[in-house]
Here is the input.
Amino acid sequence: MALFKKVIRSMLEHKAHYIGSMLLLMISSMMFVMASNTSINLEKAFKTFSEQNVLSDAEFSVDTEIDTTAIGEKFNAKVELGGTADCEVKPGQKLRVFAMMNEVNIPAVEEGSLSGASEIMLNRLFAETNGYGIGDTITVAGKEFTVSGYCLLPNFIYVVESKEVMMNDPSTFGVGVISKAEFNTLPDRHYVYALRFNERDNIQTQETAVKTELRSQGITITSWQSTDKKINVSYVPMEVGVLSKVSVAVPLVMLLLTCVLLGMLMWRMIKGESVLIGTFYALGYRRKALRRHYLMFPLLVSAIGAVVGSVLGILLTDLMFKFLLTAFPMPVQETIYNNWLIVFAVLFPITVLCGVTLGIISKVLRIPAAILMKGRESPKKINLIERKLRLERLKFNTKFQIREQVRSLSRSFFLLFGVVVATMLILYGFTMKSSVDYMLHKGIKEMYNLKYEYVFTSVKTGVPPTGTEQFNAAYVSLVENDDTSFYVVGTLPDTERIRLKDSSGRPIKPEQNIVTLPLAQKLNLKPGDRVTVFNTEDGKERTFIVEQVADTYAGEFLFMPLDRFNTEFGLPTNAYIGIWSDEPLTFPQGEVQSTKSIDAIVAGFGHLIDQMGPMIYGLIFAAFIVGLIIIYIVTGLVVEESRANISLMKVFGYRKKEINRLILSSNTIIVILGYLLGIPALLGTVGALYNSLADTLQVVLPVKLNFWYMLLGFVIVMLTYEFAKLMCRKKVARIPMDEALKVGME
Amino acid sequence: MFITVENLKKSYLMGESKNEVLKGVSLTLEKGEIGVILGPSGSGKSTLMNIIGGVDHADSGSVHVDGVEITALDDDALTDYRRNSVGFVFQFYNLIPNLTVAENIEVVSNISKSALNTDTVLEAVGLEEKKRSFPKQLSGGEQQRVSIARAIVKNPKLLLCDEPTGALDYETARGMLSLLQKINSDFGTTILMVTHNTAISGMANKVYKLRDGEIVETIRHDETVAAERIEW
Here is the structure.
């Protein structure tokens, strides 16, 4: 019991160190419990929604009606004809109206009731943002509907107009569901078959079999969208995957930091208490008792940190899950918790920390008592780096600071690692923002010199309307991998509507075959390479030679001169499928298949960037706390270890500022180095993350970090460092001069 | 007079009781002289030296060093006084373990206005070959030499030595005292030494015997003994 009191008192004497360790562990356990349980809940909600509401495996369009029953029977699948129509509700406000499905992609009713005649269900966010309550009237495509309820669509969980928009603005875009009978009266409707296999394995193979069957019947597939590549659905499993990765990576890093920190603290404490340990031996204490005594430190730290962290994690899981359900609306499930994960979150850090500490304790306890009692067993050894350093030519202050760093390599490593982690946390949000900013400003805004894109339902010939410019496009898939699709676009060779540039920034015109950078990266293409594709409409194979790569991240395209495109695809030389315009145009019903507003895409990006704000601030705050804990603890350790030196310097007549500069600022080199190493570490990590998400996002994001954000990150890291130093100044000021005078007298 | 201490008093609170360490000490020492304060443990000799060195404050009385009343100085001025005028030699050397010999000396020369060359002082203490060594690689005597080199590198007016031979063996201790005597004659440095070793008093111009916070005897030596001839 007396020894236990010593544990508590020792911990209270060095509160900052132990509280810091507990905080790091708390963050570790909290992140693990929250991320892993949120991931489980999200996965369960998605799985339940997919199964109960029969999420399709693919949606496709064909040039003629097919026998859904025959296809269903042949491939042991459910096939249902549905469709969508993009309808204007108000100027600048679009509603994607879905036909009510009964067998596949069945909508769920979140509130209210299914839509009957002249009724419509809306997604809640659109309805609430634009003031449509249940029972209100909404005019869609010129017809009045009564809002019967709020719906959730399994094949449109993440409500976003297209993959280019990235994030939806609910004031301009939403979804609605009406009965099939009502749907058949809508203009510009687009029929789509939804397909779900009963056999849940090898979906891709089964899809290929269906495509082959349809083509063998002479049916042309005009579009095929596998659900795992449809961003409205695939974002959910992607989020599950990201959360799973986060639930492992972040807590592991924190745990590692805590292990190093606590290991260092224990090593220093046990070394400092060697006389005491020797005395305990002499008093008759056994090794086992002493081991138990010193194990109480990591046990208390890890138990408190892990338990509190896990409890916080449990509390945050529900909040996080509910928050994610607003981004990915799905029927609400009761939040579940995996008890084994929670037990693991508590026991794992305890086991690891106690294990590390046990190793250190055992090493010290092997030293004979007589030697320990002398207290001179572990004089400060001069390590190899210290011996080999030749610093004669440097100024004294620099020499002193370098010596401080190499004196304790574990301490320097801990600080370096901690600053790298803090830097990565700070810059992670900024990198995402820079990447999206780059895509927006150097991609979309730079490439598109137009405001509207209209794609017609059929090819037109002749002269386009005044003030517009014609283009042609074909959606093609790779022959060797039909999951990889992109657009081949034919434009006027001297077009001003599409602005491209090469890697050195020189403008290039689509007078030749030009692929955009994301496509080149995805397919590993360079000038001179050939790419063989087949047209999803006619199924014919074509090979194109890449002549240039355009340095733009605005999408995955292969641009070529319009006349070459038309010749290649067997169309009249003056044929076109769409036009680009700066003014909004109106067309007769049924003439336009799709409309794209560049302003809407830009607004979507703006919305995404706005949404990133809280995430960035949250990450900066977390980084500030982690950085502050680490830097404060390390600076505190430096002060503790340098007590005699500080006291001596005071005796020699050093002024406060001079001591602070020498002792507290000795870590500056490591902090700056940690920041500099953190940048490539972050860019590498984000690059790997983007690559792993590219398939799901259907967009290749550039890994960019704006210089000003880098500078801002540096300022934040240095401010954190200065703040930690400020907190340690009192410690330095409190060290009395007589400490140096009493050295060796105890 | 280079050092004048007048009626110096100092007490410490030990819980609720007051411990009077110095009870009106007075002494004087001429410039360039060696003074030795002799006394048993707890007699107040270290406290006296700390006040003269500007490390501690007196309750009353005054200390003048080279015409400056240091007992009237504020903390900043005392820092300047220690920085420019006083060199310290400690019983346990107080070297910084992760700095080389030369760097330990630079700790002081780094802040001194008129520091001597590091190599010069290392030569003076006979350690020019060890400048790149770390304290741990030196013997006790060598470490004390480094400590002395560090103290004299700023060319101080006053060298305060607290039991400079306390941690050394007999031969090494005599060598150390010789070195101090040499520094005194070569640089004209005034030296005030605290010790409980009465044998050392022979090398001093003035000896102050301190007991229970009071000077009980002051001895003036017109002839001092060379350190090599001191025995104990």
Summary: Chain A is about 55% helix and 20% strand. Chain A has four domains: 1-54+236-379, 64-219, 394-449+598-746, 452-583. The radius of gyration of chain A is 33 Å.
